[in-house]
């Protein structure tokens, strides 16, 4: 084997290491989208909002997701969006005038296929709180039931089946003087900053790996 061939072999090996490190960094930094999530464009305490529940199918057996139950903290103004192939049932507390939960059921032969996801939307009046959780139960055609109801401990790692949680932002009149957000708003913005920090950390790892690889190649050439 010539010197050029040996150098090319070393470069290929280093490239493989760098690629592996890059993949590891991205996986570690990216959010776990394989869970049931809830989002909303305008989520202010005590205000109306449209919630979107993203429900992925993680069945290893290729079974359809055929039912989704979302527990609500006794909300008012609840209306579900029409979803082809699904029917929605509201569990109402008639005395209180609130809705306790929503259950979407797929029509026969319908459902969410494996490795796909569906979006379930509902309009509600949000509670006056900093955040609100929506325990979810996902049922598959083969009888498998997955409960997304585990809270994330303070400063701890995300649990295996985290409960869908929505952080509520302050209404415009909650802004302090000079356009600065109140302490509550700043605290609620922290999760986004944490996500950014994780991505930056992953990017830094990739850059460091590339730097090491280039240094090794340069040393070999010398």
TrEMBL record:
Disordered: annotated span: 148-167
| Transmembrane domains' residue ranges | 199-217
Top-rank taxon? Bacteria
InterPro entries tied to this protein:
YcnI-copper_dom (IPR012533), YcnI-like_sf (IPR038507)
User: What are the protein's UniProt keywords?
Assistant: Membrane, Transmembrane, Transmembrane helix
Which Pfam families does the protein's record reference? DUF1775 (PF07987)
Domain YncI copper-binding residues, every copy = 35-168
Q: What is this protein called?
A: Nuclear export factor GLE1
List the source organism. Answer: Mycolicibacterium sphagni
Name the lineage: Bacteria, Bacillati, Actinomycetota, Actinomycetes, Mycobacteriales
């Amino acid at each position: 084997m010539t010197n050029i061939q040996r150098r090319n072999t070393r470069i290929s090996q280093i490239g493989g290491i760098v690629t592996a490190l890059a993949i590891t960094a991205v996986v570690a930094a990216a959010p776990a989208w394989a869970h049931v999530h809830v989002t909303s464009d305008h989520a202010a305490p005590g205000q109306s909002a449209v919630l979107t529940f993203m429900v992925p199918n993680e069945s290893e057996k290729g079974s359809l997701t055929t039912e989704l139950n979302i527990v609500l903290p006794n909300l008012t103004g609840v209306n579900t969006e029409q979803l082809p192939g699904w029917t929605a049932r509201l569990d109402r507390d008639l005395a209180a005038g609130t809705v306790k939960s929503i259950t979407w059921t797929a029509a026969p032969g319908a459902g969410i296929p494996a490795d796909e996801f569906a979006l379930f939307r509902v309009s509600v009046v949000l509670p006056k709180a900093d955040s609100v959780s929506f325990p979810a139960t996902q049922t598959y055609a083969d009888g498998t039931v997955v409960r997304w109801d585990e809270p994330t401990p303070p400063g701890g790692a995300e649990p295996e089946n985290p409960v869908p949680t929505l952080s509520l932002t302050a209404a415009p009149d909650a802004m302090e003087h000079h356009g600065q957000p109140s302490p509550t708003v700043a605290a609620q913005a922290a999760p986004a900053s944490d996500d950014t920090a994780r991505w930056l950390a992953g990017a830094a790892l990739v850059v460091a790996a590339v730097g090491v690889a280039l240094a090794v190649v340069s040393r070999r050439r010398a």
